[in-house]
């Protein structure tokens, strides 16, 4: 499936491309290559992490999952003591997780890999005082009976769970990037399909290839979830032709069952609407519930094509972190200071953290401004 090919490639690269990394804590400003960010700044809190794509917080403390595309590592909690000394706690045994989400009771949801073939398909859960993640649901098995009606590559049951969020009642939401749907999963492992994502006609003129039609039907490839009240905001990568600026954020009623998210009004149903447009290959997003500001973490300004060149050159382009006000005003934060984006999280007091370096030196950073 063209729409998820980059992530297959990332998984293959990650399996062989990482050396063991030594974790150490630090708290030094990230060097600004070529200028700051209009008053924003980044401070490195942890360095040397192993592919830290997953990020959430619990009572303001960032929770970092490792091993998305590299060696497994423990889930970490980072905080400061009353004397402002950094403190990092290992919350679990080493495990490879694509994403992590903290529930209200301190338990953690994790999207991981099936031990048989390494593909990210299992949803796990760990109790607040446990160290081991236990399997709750095999998402790939569920998708065998829940084919993607918008599939373009003759593989409608393909599955690539990529983002997870915790709900207040204890359930989890999962964005499946290959099956183009949003799933709801209970603690007992029962799965239902909340919403499906339709294809959208996307222009190909940025490719400069006259053999291509002017536009192609393109899969959504949902990657990330932020929950505010009864609404889930889902960010999408947007598949081939990977046009910069073509990614959307969808607003979905979490009570829905089989809603259709579509840019075509004739196909769209109630329970899902387009909330924001004009982003590029969204990797993660989060929302400040107090201010309504949305933080959208994107692969690179040039999109998937520009990012993939990094696998050949070893020089990945900068990631793009945008803050979007309730009124729609966009501000790029710390431009040029992040690369190979992982996750973004807004804590209960408005503190913003991100991870980056998912194919190299993984970091946890605090963003100000």
In short:
Helices cover 8% and strands 42% of the residues.
Description:
This is ScyD/ScyE family protein. Keywords: Signal. This protein has one domain: Neuraminidase (6 Propeller), CATH 2.120.10. 8% of the residues lie in helices and 42% in strands. It is built from three helices and 28 strands. It has a five-stranded antiparallel β-sheet, with no helix packed on it. Strands 11-12-13-14-20 form a five-stranded mixed β-sheet. β3 and β4 form a beta hairpin. The termini are far apart.
Number of strands: 28
Q: Uncertain spans, ≥5 residues at pLDDT below 50?
A: 1-36
Instruction: Specify the overall morphology.
Output: globular
Tell me the count of domains.
1
The share of residues in helices is under 10%
Which band does the percent of strand residues land in?
35-45%
CATH fold group = Neuraminidase
Q: What is the CATH architecture annotation?
A: 6 Propeller
What composes the largest sheet?
A: 5 strands, antiparallel
Structural class: mainly beta
Compute the number of helices: 3
Separation of the first and last Cα atoms: 39 Å
Cα-atom radius of gyration: 19 Å
Q: Mean pLDDT score, rounded?
A: 89
Broad CATH class: Mainly Beta
Keywords: Signal
Biased composition (Acidic residues): 148-157
Region (Disordered): 141-160
Signal peptide: 1-25
């Amino acid at each position: 499936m063209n729409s998820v090919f980059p992530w297959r490639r990332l998984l293959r690269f990650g399996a062989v491309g990482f050396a063991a990394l030594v974790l150490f804590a630090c708290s030094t400003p990230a060097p600004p290559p070529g200028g700051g960010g209009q008053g924003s700044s980044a401070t490195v809190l942890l360095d040397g992490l192993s592919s830290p794509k997953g990020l959430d917080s619990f009572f303001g403390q960032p929770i970092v999952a490792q091993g998305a595309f590299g060696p497994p590592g423990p889930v970490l909690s980072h905080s400061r003591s009353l004397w402002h000394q950094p403190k990092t706690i290992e919350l679990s045994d080493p495990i490879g997780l694509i994403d992590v989400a903290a529930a209200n009771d301190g338990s953690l949801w994790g999207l991981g890999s099936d031990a048989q073939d390494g593909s990210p398909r299992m949803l796990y859960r760990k109790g607040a005082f446990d160290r081991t993640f236990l399997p709750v649901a095999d998402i790939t098995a569920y998708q065998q009976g829940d084919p993607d009606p918008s599939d373009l590559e003759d593989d409608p049951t393909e599955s690539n769970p990529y983002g997870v969020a915790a709900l207040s009642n204890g359930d989890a939401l999962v964005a499946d990037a290959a099956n183009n749907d949003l799933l709801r999963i209970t603690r007992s492992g029962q799965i239902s399909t909340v919403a499906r994502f339709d294809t959208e006609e996307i222009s190909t003129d940025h490719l400069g290839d006259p053999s291509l039609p002017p536009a192609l039907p393109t899969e959504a490839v949902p990657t990330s979830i932020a929950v505010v009240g009864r609404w889930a905001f889902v960010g999408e990568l947007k598949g081939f032709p990977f046009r910069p600026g073509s990614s959307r954020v969808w607003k979905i009623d979490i009570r829905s069952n089989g809603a259709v998210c579509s840019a075509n009004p004739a196909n769209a149903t109630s329970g899902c609407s387009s909330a924001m447009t004009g982003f590029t290959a969204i990797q993660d997003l989060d929302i400040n519930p107090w201010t309504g500001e949305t933080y959208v973490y994107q692969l690179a300004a040039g999109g998937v094509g520009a990012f993939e060149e990094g696998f050949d050159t070893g020089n990945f382009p900068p990631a793009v972190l945008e803050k979007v006000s309730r009124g729609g005003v966009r501000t790029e934060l710390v431009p040029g200071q992040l690369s190979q984006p992982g996750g973004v999280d807004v804590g209960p007091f408005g503190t913003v953290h991100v991870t980056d370096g998912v194919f190299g030196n993984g970091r946890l950073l605090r963003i100000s401004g």
